[in-house]
Design goal:
rod-shaped, 67% helix, 6-stranded mixed barrel, 6 helices, alpha/beta
Length: 334
Amino acid sequence: MGEPGTALRAGLAAVCVVVLAALQLPAAIGADSPSRLREQARALQAQNGALGSKAQAAWLSSVSLGTRIEHTRAALVSLRARTRSISLRRAEAERNLRSTRHTLAVSERNLADRLRVLYEQGDTDPMAVLVGASSIDEAINGLENLHRIAGQDRTVIERAKAARARLIDATRRLAAQEAQARQAEEATAASVAALEAARRERAAMLTSFRATRSSNSAKISKLESRARALFAAQTRLPSAQQGGPATGGQTITVTATGYSLRGRTATGVAVAYGIVAVDPNVIPFGSRMTVPGYGEGVAADTGGAVVGARVDLWFPTRAEALACGTRTVTITLH
């Protein structure tokens, strides 16, 4: 066996080789470890999931708004037709009212003209008619003519006045109905405009959600690519030769557990997914390996409890480390 001082110096030399190699890695490894990049990617994926739900809700709202717009437009068409009908009826009533007023004015003028003629001829007094008649028949006819003429004029005037009153009432009522119909028409048109504005807003939201999801997808791809590149850089650590350890191409059965400590490893490399703590007397620092159920890893850490055929696999969260548990696996060294 060699002297203890010699073995210690050899071990320190091996560690120095690994530390120097780690210092040559990109500075971004410490700031952006693969695990942190993957966490950012998962956060963006969660955001995309939420955006997908919001986009679905916005689309359903847009469809509902489209249906409401169609129904409201149909109601607006019906209201406009009703307003036109009332307007036509009101215009007809106004024409009839003007005609009735003209008829009443003509009848009143005719009556005045007849009365003036009768007074001028002196035949307005029934007694004068009786005295001036040459026979009873002539007297009766004269009296009947007086009553008939007066009655006809009164009938025409009374009918014209009654028609005027009815037409005035109808005109006022139709004017009120037309005003109400126009108010309803304007309110419905405003509803259509508001619904269309809301649907345009939903369309803009959909466009924004899709643009954000597309941008997030591109960022996720870049983050994952960067994480793979950083992990690959970490796996390029050189192997430090130790006496009698396992070598590349071999398989070894080990007890695997999980850990999630933060900071830097025993070799100075920032912790990240794929960092494996080993006993360097069994697996040299810098050895790359494939761990069933975990994936690719690199021997870059150690610990007081990692002795012999044991490995600790790094996870970004304590829950994932606990879920790993303790299990026996056969790893392959590269």
